[in-house]
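DATA SHEET
Item: assembly model
Revision: 1
Owner: S.N.
Input lines:
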Amino acid sequence: MTQVPSDVIRTADGTPLRLSLQRTQFQSRLRALMLVLPLLAFLTVTFILPILDMLYRSIDNRIVASILPQTTVTIQAWDAQGGELPDEAVFEALVRDMQAAFKDKTLGRVGRRLNYEKPGMSSLFRKSGRNTRKITEAPFKEQLLAIDKRWHDVSVWRLIYRESGATTSSYFLASSDLRLNDQGEIARQPEPRRIYVTLFYRTLWMSLLITALCLLLGYPVSYLLATLPLRTSNLLMILVLLPFWTSLLVRTTSWIALLQTQGVLNDLLVFIGLVPEDARLQMIYNKTGTLVAMTHILLPFMILPLYSVMKTIPASYMQAARSLGASPFTAFIRVYVPNTVPGIGAGCILVFILSIGYYITPALVGGRTGTFISNFIAVHISESLNWGLAAALGAILLAVVLVLYLLYDKIVGVSNMRLG
Amino acid sequence: MKQFLRAAVVSVGAALLAGNSLATELTIVSWGGAYTASQQKAYHDPYVANNPGIRIINDDSGAEGLAKIRAQVEADNVTWDLVDMVASDAIIACDEGLVEEIDPDTWLAPAPDGTPASQDFFAGTLNPGGTNCFIPSIVYSTTFGYRTDAFQDKQPATIADVFDLETFPGKRALQKRPINNLEWALIADGVAGDKVYEVLSTPEGVARAFAKLDTIKDHVIWWAEGAQPPQLLADGEVVMASAYNGRLFSAIAEKNQPIAMMWDWQAFDLDGWVVPKGVKDLGAVKAYLKFATDTQRLADQAKYISYGPARHSSGPLVGNHAELGIDMKPHMPTNKNNVTSVLNFDYVWWADHRAELDERFNAWLAK
């Protein structure tokens, strides 16, 4: 080691400074990792894994293959495009599978899964399951066809054939108002059933509108809060925070009391004669209701980041601009506003992302035209129990948010965003 | 709140008396509000009084009952002991093997005169959709209520009046789902009550039902929670509303609102118990069920809420309202004066068409 150049800086105990530094840095990194480890583990279990599970559920299609194992194997030999019914072997496999599944009480799941694709499958499987118990020997085909004439329908068999794989695209197709037709080609849903594209579009558009309204209303308030003397601004701040601390349901219900046709606002308008008694305004249970209530509920999320950024802008900036000859308006537009961009960015993205996934307020005040896609995700989770479709809708919503976030990063820059 | 406090005090008291290690806990899931309160008074309180070793915990997540049972059974961690759900959910739960199958005559108490349970419950109610996991406790109905001060000379009396905007102008409230609304639309359009599902099975029939709904679409407020329609009626926001009959009764009799019932083509449905598969102590659950579904208990519940007991033998025992003292019999959906026309909900038909018609209904709403 005599070759070691003499210019290497060493610590007191003789190890090169670079090594020693690396070691300490490694140790401090390790310490930092240990400190965040509990949170990381928590997030993995409660956030990352559920999201991955959701993403998987949106394509998961194990139900048919696991409950009708023999059928899904034997049906592969069938010529699905031929227009002929499958042969005896497939029928036998299906009868045997149904008998086993009926005993395990799992046949209902297959019926319900296939019913998403083709109405009537639920009762077909329930009826057949109950009646195939008696079938013990060949000819299986003849006996199953006798149980229900729908087994004569080739499209039923095509459906089983199509959904026998481990994954499916049908949930994502359904979320985009598409479906696979009998021939297995992608086609649009019949017109009366198209809904989700409209809803995605509405959710995005209304969230943008709510964000814009929040900015419009929040900016002057934040400006006032940031420039008033501390005593007054603290009082105003409490007025901003008070609704923030009030229960969401209470605030939403208050809007119902205010805006409904027999509500306070309409009574007032009728009283002063602006609106005739028999033409009271419909301001709730529609888009207006959702816009008003959500703007009110999300307003603090705009005001707080704006305020914290405005608070840091020295008054001397504006004074300097004025002293250099700018009019108050020019000084405000050219000096003050650009300084608040990080706050605008943070507030807008916060409000937008919160509103795009908002659920309870649109459900209560949205009526038929003011509901969001999240309301339908909730319906599929807890009412129709079509978790696959709910997962696909959720995955699309997640993707849309990520794309918009990246877009935002490209245009404004995420680093150029401050929450305070 | 008072209810909750009382329940909390009772259960804490019971726990202290029995000692935590000895007490068997039963987590009973129901719908909350006035409904859980009626079960508390009619079933839970007397049962706990006779069985000091039992603690009953009320869980009000009945609206998500099926979704949560499914999650619990899938995760193999069943924390609920007994779940109150509507028959159509019980059919799905049973079909998917999420709940225990029951044998009525060994699980349930016979009628006082010795009639076995399988004969005493209304025909078919123990086997909705051909399943055998459901123990009905009440018959409830979704029916119409209207404001008595909204119309001068003529009051609405038939389902066709709901669709008659000329004679009965004003807003209506309907439940935000196709079930019942499509049937009512067809009946109002002249289809015979027993032919409704036959007509709805054809594309033309569905189109006809939607076309009829179209005629009032701009005058409808859609509700999602059972508490909404009585509130909308009380506020004068609507002049008539479909609602659960028990909620309407509470608005009319308990809160003295100017509302009246219209029983024409009330839609019957059942609500009752299922036992999730894999409960910790099936014996304790069965003992409770035997008590809570006997003739007297079902009749007792009708003292607190106007839902009809699902047993023949309970009918004559229905008495007066516990607080108001009024005779509850005329307010039962099953009372003979109220059943001149009844829509019998077809579970099997809806199991097939629910997904498709929900989508179509929602798309129709959004337009």
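QC remark: The beta strands of chain B are 24-29, 54-59, 82-86, 135-147, 172-175, 220-223, 240-244, 259-274, 308-309, 342-344.
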